[in-house]
Design brief:
Length: about 120
């Protein structure tokens, strides 16, 4: 276990990861939505079961989009902190975030201690 700060190469790699992830989310959110061709027929027939399952799918899609939006915002903030040279500092306590945690979740805002406090 090392608490060494990230070096230039690691920071560059994390920035690439952040940019790639942002690109993925943006591509997914602007991509065409998978609408089944039979949808028109189903809604006209008004089958209750089909409608229920259809609603569930929409609900799941919305939930995914909300999560993506949150990650997207966190990525933007992380990229901003990278530009400012303050990347890897916990938003809540100001301590450096462990390198291993940043590598696992490059857009994280808080250190593991604060994260655990949040979810407790
Ligand atoms: Zn903290």
């Amino acid at each position: 276990m090392t608490d060494k700060p990230l070096d230039e190469a690691q920071l560059a790699a994390l920035k690439e990861t952040l940019l790639r992830k942002r690109g993925e989310i943006l591509a997914a959110s602007t991509g065409t939505r998978p609408i089944p061709a039979s949808m028109d027929v189903n809604s006209r027939q008004g089958d209750m079961a089909d409608q229920a399952s259809g609603n569930n799918e929409v609900h799941i899609q919305l939930k995914l989009k909300q999560t993506d939006a949150k990650i997207l915002q966190a990525i933007e903030e992380a990229l901003f902190r990278l530009e400012k040279g303050i990347y890897g500092v916990c938003r809540d306590c100001g301590d450096p975030i462990a390198a291993a945690r940043l590598i696992a979740i490059p857009w994280t805002r808080v250190c593991i201690t604060c994260k655990q406090k949040q979810s407790a």
